[in-house]
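ugh finaly. both done.
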Amino acid sequence: MDWKSTKMILASAAAVVVVSQVAKKLCKYIFNSSKHTENEVANDDTCSEVLQIKNREINDVILFSDDIVRHTIRIPTNKEITICESRELNCFKLIKYIKSARETLDVCMYLITSTEITEQIIRLGQKHVLVRIVVDSDMAYAPPSQIKRLEEYSFIQVQTNKRTILMHHKFCIVDGPKAIKRKLLLRAHAEKLNVHGHLTRKFANQVPKIKNTKGFVMSGSLNWSTQAMISNHESVIVTSHPNIVSKFEKEYESLWVENEPTLKST
């Protein structure tokens, strides 16, 4: 083999190496760009909702309708995709808001029959979320009401409204400021009554600490029933606006009969 042929072979080999490296980098760039685009799409849709709940800046409407609600969003490179919002997705969204409670959940509901929502309420109580429920006395124990089941758990407080006027509210308050203050007072009272103070100090690290968090309200026509979510036209407004949360808390306190005299301010 002469020198000219050798040079051609070496040049060809070098070209192959260069091309392979370029192709490798190109594939890597395309893959990363695709991954980046997918992440941005997710952020525009589901992830944005997760962050929204985390930051508690919420102004949302959940519509239960026969028609599929479609939203068009724009993604990088000027492409548009359509997101469909069905009854099933709205049920999931509603439960996601409920299970986002960190410290307290105050429920004022004419009727609760949904086993899925009941399960979430029980799980919240097991995670040290303080749960209070006000229901209408006529509907509290009428099948398939879940109130009797909820009353089986000591960490869930239930009161039936026994006034002559119908209790037809359908709202809940997640981490309301007044409810969190009440939880702090209850905890302080429990520690004061604890005759084994050394145990309180010993296991202090095991007691979840209350963090500053912004509350929000869910209110609308929807009872927490499977029938309503599957078959009815219903709407739920979700908002963290402080003035609206405050008004709903005031209404809740007017319905709730406080049994703990220690909660009075000193």
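ok and the 2nd:
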Amino acid sequence: MSTAQVNNSKITVYVVSCWIFAAFGGLMFGYDIGISGGVSGMDDFLIKFFPNVYERKLHAKENNYCKYDDQLLQLFTSSLYLSALVSSFFASKACQLLGRRPTIFMASAFFIAGAVISAASEHRWMLIVGRILFGVGVGFGNETVPLFLTEVAPIQLRGAVNILFQLFVTIGIFIANLVNYATSTMHPNGWRVSLGLAAVPALLLLIGCFVITDTPASLIERGKEDQGKAALKKIRGIEDVEVEYKEIVAACEQAKQVKHPFRNLIKAASVPPLVIAIFLQIFQQFTGINAIMFYAPVLFQTMGFKSDGALLSAVITGLVNVGATFVSIYAVDKLGRRKLLLQACCQMLISQLAIGGILSVNLKETGTLDRTLAAIVVVLVCTYVMSFAWSWGPLGWLIPSETFPMETRTAGFAFAVSTNMLFTSLIAQAFLTMLCKMQAYIFFFFSAWIVVMGLFVIFLLPETKGVPIDSMVEDVWKKHPVWKKLFKNE
């Protein structure tokens, strides 16, 4: 894509509307992340579906770290991500054959169905069916929305526009924490309200599908050149788009030569972005962020906060999460991807080690933290969440969406989404058991992963700020000291 050409684009009301409506896919995902942990801690919910956990909670003094350790309760959270893992590959095919906009429409429809069934659940199996439908919606949305945002963004704003997805994820988490705080006193059906309100962001996304255009790349890839050119003029706000249009057509012509995009992921041009996409998703989960976001109220109760205090603390961390994401929107196209990732590794490492140290010394299997130490832990959790929110959170989605060549873009991004969902489900399924077995040392476990992440960035992750998405091979991979070895025979 020509930098000079794109710099002439105008930021119109229409294109901003496209960005915002598409980003509601992130709000949908974030709301679910935030809502499940709060609902899991509500007594009315536990009494109805997980009475054994409720009984254990009544005798919480037996062991602070193990009162919520229940595989079925964890399945309530993790089933969504297993469903999203599988559905992301179907979403990849839908994205390629039908286009970005219809796939986003399907994501919202599945999510609304999940919200309705979850809120109406009378049996545990209904609850799991609802979670699975939520998961299909998340799989389709997370596959399509970051690609959509990357493909419609002008090059000089590509990072910031893509991070709108993560911003809306954080806003969704924050709203979910507020909803849980409000519904925790609505007996006996507060949990139904929390789960049912998940339909609202999905409905906004559904409405948005009637406003946004499909991306020029998707239209041209499917043989709709005239519509693609018209869409390009509309999102750029100018008539002279010939240079960019020809570049997209050339990339699509090259992509059409590829009959099996998943098979072509093992070719040299796709190997570096595939490796990086997969490991970014693994590392994103092994920062421990979703352990905190899923189970923030549960985690704070473990530290000795009462139920309302735990939910309020989760609201505070959610607010920090939203605010810090704005830092990333401002800085990603100025400072670049690598600096944000490396700075965050340092800040997250210090925060995790400090939390682990305080809890290992002061929070035993019985008893609670005193008020001062509990407040310090909340501050440390906030500094940790803050650094994640301007780095590994948004960049874990941005970098894979901008580095694959056109011919393997949807297939490669499907691997990124499915890897994220796989490891999110593993963390969701295992965290409460890990907390029970490892106790405070779980924070040292995540700290060790943060060190590995930093080394990965230093040696294997190149800077992609300002590089046209169709020039990554020539401008990035063939010049990188490690990745260039893949191209020595070309």
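summary for the 2nd one i guess: The chain has one domain: 13-212+258-486.
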